[in-house]
Design goal:
The chain folds into two domains: about 1-115, 2-Layer Sandwich (Phosphorylase Kinase, domain 1); about 120-245, Transferase(Phosphotransferase), domain 1 (Orthogonal Bundle). About 45% of the residues lie in helices and about 20% in strands. It contains eight helices and ten strands.
Length: about 250
């Protein structure tokens, strides 16, 4: 019944973001208890609460006072994905040239909740194409540098999470979070302040996700972003390879 009602109501909502939120809140009435939990966690009246739905409607997200983000799992108890992400973040946070939001794990009833520090800035996917065009070189150098630094890292703490034991970093291959087309947060000067949502990070080829990013950027009017990111990354990678050979 909940599914039927949500489908009928959502036919009347043109905005996709709002439509997903309404659908989830009808299908998963426990989301109201999640909001109450965050209000209680705030410990005071007048707390500023915002809600949204995670990618694929896998999570219900509650933002508290633009300071903390609580991610409640909808399809599972959240245990496996939370602890895996925590290990990855703890290993990559000291390495990443772009800030990664700190994460805590909270046990609430029978689920595991991920609590993050709020990432200030504007999502790359929300920036006006004209602004991206004017700052394309600056933005793409930052993205490429992060891909290069994270991709060549091989922290021993998370080597057991690789799909293929013994895999080594290589060209466009290593630790990588695929949502590079949108998960960067930018300030008013187009400096990247954070990279968010690391739950799908894997030791993998970068190319499939870079192709998706390139197509998406082009559709949004971010011309040549994918080409520039690849060029900047390649320059960093092959300069480093050359330096290694010279030292030998």
């Amino acid at each position: 019944m909940h599914h039927f009602l949500s489908n009928v109501l959502c036919l009347l909502i043109p905005n996709r973001t709002l439509r997903d939120k309404v659908r989830v809140m009808i299908r998963y009435p426990q989301t109201l208890s999640y909001i109450r939990y965050v209000r209680k966690y705030a410990g005071r009246n007048g707390a500023k609460i915002k809600t949204r739905v995670g990618r694929g409607c896998r999570n219900f997200v509650v933002v508290l006072d633009d300071k903390w983000v609580f991610k409640f799992p909808l399809f599972t108890d959240g245990h496996e994905i939370a602890y895996r992400e925590k290990r990855i973040l703890d290993a990559l946070m000291p390495i990443s040239p772009i800030k990664i939001p700190k994460m805590e794990i909270i046990h609430y009833k029978d689920i595991v909740v991920r609590k993050y520090e709020f990432a200030n800035g504007m999502l790359l996917s929300d920036v006006e194409p004209s602004v991206v065009a004017a700052n394309r070189g600056h933005i793409t150098r930052q993205i490429a540098n992060m891909l290069y630094v994270i991709g060549k890292a091989d922290p021993k703490e998370i080597r057991d999470l690789k799909d293929v034991p013994g895999d080594k970093p290589g060209y466009l291959y290593g630790w990588f979070q695929g949502d590079v087309w949108q998960n960067f947060m930018l300030d008013e000067n187009c400096n990247i302040t954070y990279f968010i949502d690391w739950e799908d990070t894997k030791f993998q080829s970068f190319m499939p996700a870079l192709r998706v990013a390139t197509r998406t950027w082009e559709k949004r009017g971010y011309r040549y972003m994918g080409i520039d990111v690849l060029a900047e990354y390649s320059k960093l990678y092959f300069q480093n390879q050359k330096s290694k050979k010279q030292k030998k």
